[in-house]
Amino acid sequence: MLSKITGCTVIGIHGWLIEVEVDVALGLPVFATVGLPDSAVRESRDRVKAAIKNCGYEFPSRKITVNLAPADIKKEGSGFDLPIAVGILEATETLVMDRSRHKTFCIVGELSLDGGVRKVNGVLPMILAAREQGISKIIVPVENMEEARVSPPGIDVIPVSTLPEVVEYLAGLVDISPIPPLSGTPLTENVEYGVDFSDIKGQKHVKRALEIAASGGHNVLLKGPPGSGKTMLAKRFPTILPDMSLDEILETTKIYSIAGKKAGESLLCTARPFRAPHHSISDAGLIGGGTSPRPGEVSLAHNGVLFLDELPEFKKNVLELLRQPVEEGTVTIVRAKMALTFPARFSLFAAMNPCPCGFYGTAKIAATVQVCRFTNMKAEFPALSWIGLIFIWKFRRSITMK
């Protein structure tokens, strides 16, 4: 018997509805999944089989074929466990439901071996995609409730925690209340950054520059010796930025949901992101990428601040990759079979020391300027020995003193 259930996957930062077709026919007991599944989707057969048996249902000893349509799109993640299990139970008539409802709901969730429903990444873009396609209800794991509450009205989000709960709900035996959506007003009322711009004492000229940068969306380069407060100023800059709008909260939360990260204590990104990657970061880590492209630091800093501490320590090719995001507010990652565009609109903050020793122009200059000059000479004449460099250094110093 054939069953059709609507699932969903994420491509880039957008959800994509997938039709999960399950056919249970006579033949040797084989479980085949087709439709360009990745390793996590192929391994679902073991999770689904164990979950169905441990929940007290009978798993069919027949030939089971699962097709994920459209077949030319690569399917990723563990969110197809639940729709596959529901499709098998319906195909074997363990679950009896009105087939006219198939086009009205979508199912997303990962199964544990005991039949529990675990959270998945990218629930918010899946909900938005289902809403755009006219889906009236979507079943999601209860652990994704907080993220799902920020979704706009127009679709009922049903939280579930176990496979039997889903079966009973679809059979009409129990009623589960949908998650009440949040309005955009209270989301930014109690935003906490942990630090505040008022913590800065003195530094009037720098604070004035940061206020201008916040009002005009400008980028900032902080140059000064160690301990002058560059990092402290950068961390407090997001606290004077305007509160995020509902559209910005949705867009930023989608990125963090897909990346499987949290912007803070809450799953909702109501505070401006502040990302400070280490200077050893790779190209893919900063811009995004991988075999299946994922957002990088520039996208995780979307609608917030990207802080590059010790700017000269970053590799040249990594810094050159920032040109497109800074100019266009987006970053495009091209692979053999796809080209994905991630949003990357942020305020770029960079900090650096004025010289290799870090104290040029300060009271410590007399003790350290000769060290800086000697270090620069070593870079200028790499072929000379240390004795030759010392001779050149003393010769230049004698001329300077005269």
From TrEMBL:
Keywords: ATP-binding, Nucleotide-binding
InterPro entries given in the database record: CHLI-like, MCM_dom, Mg_chelat-rel, Mg_chelatse_chII-like_cat_dom
Classification via Pfam families: ChlI, Mg_chelatase
Domain MCM C-terminal AAA(+) ATPase: 296-392
A molecular function GO annotation: ATP binding
PROSITE patterns, alphabetized: MCM_2
Organism superkingdom: Bacteria
Keyword flag ATP-binding: yes
Protein name, entry field: MCM C-terminal AAA(+) ATPase domain-containing protein
The organism of origin for this protein: Desulfomarina profundi
